Amino acid sequence: MINQLNPVWQMGLIVLVVLVFSSVMVALMRFLRPQGNFSELSSRIKAWWIMAAVFFGAIAVSSRISLVFFGFLSFWALKEYITLLKTRAADHRALVWVFLSVPIQYYWVGTNWYGMSIIFIPVYMFLFLPIRLVLARETAGFVASASQLQWGLMAFVFGLSHLAMLLTLPAIDNSSANGRTLLLFLVFVVEMSDVLQFVWGKTLGRHKILPTVSPNKTWEGFLGGIITTSLAALLIRFLTPFTPLETVGVALLLTVAGFFGGAVMSAVKRDFGVKDFGGLIPGHGGMLDRVDSLCYAAPVFFHYLRYFHY
Amino acid sequence: MTARDLVQLTFFALVLRPFLTLFIGLRVRGREHLPQSAPFIMIANHSSHLDTVSLLGLFPLRKLSQLRPVAAADYFERNAFVSAFSKTVFNILPITRKKITTDTNPLPRMEAALHAGQSLILFPEGTRGSGEDLARFHSGAAHLIEKCPEVPVVPVYLVNMGRSLPKGEWIPVPFFCEVRIGPPQKFQGNCREITAALETAVRQLRDL
Q1: What class has domain B3-206?
Q2: Are B176 and A96 within 8 A, CB to CB?
């Protein structure tokens, strides 16, 4: 019966099972070790319930709603990044354009204009922002401003908009895959990998990978996380056109990309001297703390698909 | 409820509150210090037009009509439109900053508002600054507190407002802004001592 469900709802069911399982596990741990402190774990899982509900709501109803949702995701991530920058008074008008480029980029994505959505930020905004900065007639700190703003646009607007671009991909022949199911595959694999790397790292972690950047990332967590995630990806292969071998390969690619996304954003936080990007999601930090891996994994996945399957 | 109250309430509910939550992403620290009963005097640093909007946005809609941001008449009454807008939406108490005569003395007007049960929002810096450092506080707020020592004073420090919407700009950039509210206090002493104490109270919130 489950096989007759639409793949999006099948996936919803799987996520529901995973969430119920985690909540039951925490309840069980509370029962077995009443003196232990599980409040952070419990608030994290609670946040996962809410995020999963919001995410499914945003992608299941209509593509217009999905577009607004991902646009808002980019906007919020960009806000968190820009707030931590040391901006100059002379950057004000350029910053207005930086934020305006969010709806513009998502408009291109929404109209399915692939060429424009792929060059708007890397080409046109890249050329335009320094012009706006020059017009403000302040040269001290010019290069820093131009580079930091463009970097933020690339990571949080261009990069994250690939999530919405996935939704514009048509159905693939001889499989139940389409843009929406592929998006679900990506998000599930990347978020699962974040969680499993965390779990493996907490339980077995000994050898740090990047101690100066992200002291919580260990080889044990990394390897355990990407291997178990890639195996778990086999369970949701019905969302993709991949063979079993390709599924594992793609999952490895995504988890490694996601790992580096997280590491890059950790380095950004270190540089700014903060622990989290914000306080939007209890137990997780800001929006950026949750989507950091996707900033890397989403473009990689999208262009992999476009090259090999479309 | 007057027609003005209704316009203000609607504008806050439909435009300014969503703007503060979804666009600015306003964070509030020390919300528990917000006084439950009027009147009180709220003092804050000043670097942006967002300051008043954010402070008024802290309160339940039904309490909006009891709040009077004290504003410079030479700026907010510079033309009919700005004057009507700021009186309708922000319910400002316009005061004279320069060439004060007996007729235009702001003190009796502020006292009268407090006696009528209205709370005041004051920016003792007297004008919008760059947002980077606090300017020296003027003595007007202290004069008022000296005359009404029983009214609680709530110090507030506003973060990033001047980055989001600095003086001279009209389009806000959505930096996250923060309101830090300190515990209500009562001040005693002479005007100079109160001015210094107010400045210290706001500075302490800045250095949190």
Answers
A1: alpha beta
A2: no
